[in-house]
Write a structure and sequence with these properties.
alpha/beta; 8-stranded mixed β-sheet; 27 strands; 21% strand
Length: 715
Amino acid sequence: MSDSIDNMEQIVASEEEMKLLDDPALYINRELSWLKLNERIFEEVNDRTHPLLERIKFLAICGSNLDEFFMVRVSGLKQQLLEGALKAPPDGMTPQEQLATIRMEVKKLLKRYSKCWKEELIPELLNEGIVIKKVEDLDKNQRNFIRSYFDDSIFPTLTPLAMDFAHPFPFISNLSFNLAVIVRDTENNEKYARVKIPTDLFPRLVEIPDRRKKSQNKIERKRERNFVFVEDVIASEIDKLFPGLEIVASYPFRITRNAEITVSNDLAPDLLTAMEVGIESRRIGFPIRLETDKSMPADLKNLFICNLELTDDRVYEVNMPLSLVDFWQFLDIDRPDLKDTPFLPYLPPAFCVGQDIFSAIEKRDWVFYYPYDSFNVLVNLLNQAAEDPDVLAIKTTIYRIDKKSPVIDTLLRARVNGKDVAVLVELKAKFDEAANIHWAKVLEEEGVHVVYGLEDLKVHSKILLIVRKQGEKIMRYSLISTGNLNAVTSTIYADLVYLTCNLEVGSELTELFNFLTGYSKMCDYNRLVVAPATLRKEVIKRIDREIEAHKLTGDGYIAVKLNGLIDKGIIQALYRASIAGVKIELNVRGLCALRPGIKGVSENITVTSIIGRFLEHARIYYFRNGGDDNVLIGSADMMPRNIKRRIEVLLVVPDPKLKEIIIEDMLNAHLKDNVKARRLLSDGTYERITPAPEEVRLNSQTWLIDNRGIWHGDS
């Protein structure tokens, strides 16, 4: 009887605890967390430890992030507002409340961007001899160059479109950059027109050649380089598009549309064809944001608002150049002194060309950390696989791939050499749909077995399997990565890659590929944790196990590095662990809905975020587990989409030595960062971590550059 009473009390206590953990005040709104990420990125624009052109790059990232935020998140809230939200987020904010707060926060960000551009970046560029000029400030020779450049190159590509009663309002595509032009006819009537700026054909920054004679002085200042924005070039010559009319004024503007793709299985024979049709829906999706120059008059602005069926709250006035994403082009300026110092990624001798890489993997497991390690590890492995007569098959997944991919090249060569090559190309990878359709066709044309992904789930896992005959045995070489098999992003994103010949891993990866390419059912795994089947269950099981271990040892500890922590179930499990006394350290680069430091709930949890030279993209899950360390790495974040709507893979790291390396040389380096890390406070704001005077400063990314190779046992 007493046992039954104890169980009853435990259940009641659990229900009370769960009721407490349902309190909306314990959760940060997802959309506002996204904007806080943009704030942290913007702090890097103001950080003078970065070279000047790299700081402008961070401003471009801010612009790109905001574009995606409006195309995906704000458009989603607008849809909820129209259709009725199905379920309130954990924080309880309604769509109306979220949209109102988003507008307020975005306007603050835009003011800060403008102030920084005008008062800091422009003067600092000038000080370095990089001058951003208006056409009206150019001298005669420079104006002549601009005039010739416009006449010879730009003018033939422009199409002015009238906006009046006799002409239908022109379609304005997503993220297109435009000029709204006011003209006056001979009868003094004002009319409006739209001119699209062809930024896909011409650089945003137009450099004006320096035709002055070089100074004979031995000591000469840095050569001044003059640039004008392409929209200013077009505006200065716009009268050539409207002969016989007076140009009153022109104003830049930009439209953002909903980016969700509509895919209809009824109208296409396969997913690839359905995606090709669906991509067009993004270009013509409903307008979600109008960006205008602050000087645009109200009547012209209202013309767009009415014809695009917008409301005033979707209009954002900007007091600086529009389309910040184009500011990436500043990195094209040939000034190495204003960019990050390059370094040579480490390539272990065992993975160099001419070495027996398969033998190296058979002897031991390997873990690599891009960009500190070289992507040639993978390229050389695949090159060897393509040429090795004993290799029977190569299987992999593609989510985002580079335009001139060495991975694609090796897969095609492997197929030419008679290998059985199977590639799952995820056609639904947002904003990479068209590129992936292209690669799917290229691979299919060469006889590669191509799977287009799954109808109801995105395949986000980054996995590779090489099957090779070795005497009478069949060997399987398994790769699990936290990031894409992409040579370009491997130099920008910080990702882990694990290579092993572990029999259990190879067997389970084979079963997973059979599920992805065929009709086999998804299995329960031991070395792999796979979403949506087991991810949430396995992570919560490990959190609960840590609670039990803490009751016995008093040293329960969880450390997690990931990109996003939004899932309510996972957050509640972490809250329960904190309440039980488990110490929890989270390094969450982006979105985080968990509130740390709340007395009685999350006072044992700390959350940091690192924004630096590289995009932190690795996912590492560490549970002390009573001294029997449990480490998982892979593609999954703790967000509902990763847990419910994607095929994600985490690897339970089998090698004890590599577990220690991942914990000590990688995870702990980031957790101890006191230079580029910010600490999340319970109110949802972030503060920079400032080292004490006696404390050693640690920039984890710099430390990893300086110490690359040590995790391979090399000096």
